[in-house]
Amino acid sequence: MNFTVAQQHEDDWPEVWRVLEPAFRAGDSYPLPRDVTEASAKRYWIKQDGYNAVARDAGGAVVGVYYLRPDQGGPGDHICNAGYVVAEAARGKGLATALCRQSQEQARAMGFRGMKFNLVVSTNAAAIKAWKRAGMEIIGAVPGAFRHPTRGTVDAHIMFKAL
């Protein structure tokens, strides 16, 4: 898939929300209420100490998004956390893996020394496959950490990669 990645700007939000909303409403990968408001979703996605990016296809449409931010504060702020969403029409084309790899480059440039995902839902096989392709490893699991809308309580993986 041909795409470009750039830092997200305020005027990108309507397109970003069009990508995020279906994923948040599905309730199978992000720890947000399925009826989350747009304003609450924006506060969750965009943080003052973070970096947000958009991936655009050849026609200029936003097809993927990600955030980077410190996973912890103070002495733990050298490890970042990241989150990704790919538009449904762009899934299955390697974009998630490419975004993860690109975000790792961005994280290195920002001085982060590792990337950690705190809640990768165990039933999200496509994401797990993409993150492993990008060099992330499962380092642990939290039993029953996620209430999946159709599968009930499922485990969540913790994934990590040194940068």
From TrEMBL:
<dbReference type="GO" id="GO:0016747">
    <property type="term" value="F:acyltransferase activity, transferring groups other than amino-acyl groups"/>
</dbReference>
<dbReference type="InterPro" id="IPR016181">
    <property type="entry name" value="Acyl_CoA_acyltransferase"/>
</dbReference>
<feature type="domain" description="N-acetyltransferase">
    <location>
        <begin position="1"/>
        <end position="163"/>
    </location>
</feature>
<dbReference type="InterPro" id="IPR000182">
    <property type="entry name" value="GNAT_dom"/>
</dbReference>
<dbReference type="Pfam" id="PF00583">
    <property type="entry name" value="Acetyltransf_1"/>
</dbReference>
<dbReference type="InterPro" id="IPR052742">
    <property type="entry name" value="Mito_N-acetyltransferase"/>
</dbReference>
<keyword id="KW-0808">Transferase</keyword>
<protein>
    <submittedName>
        <fullName>GNAT family N-acetyltransferase</fullName>
    </submittedName>
</protein>
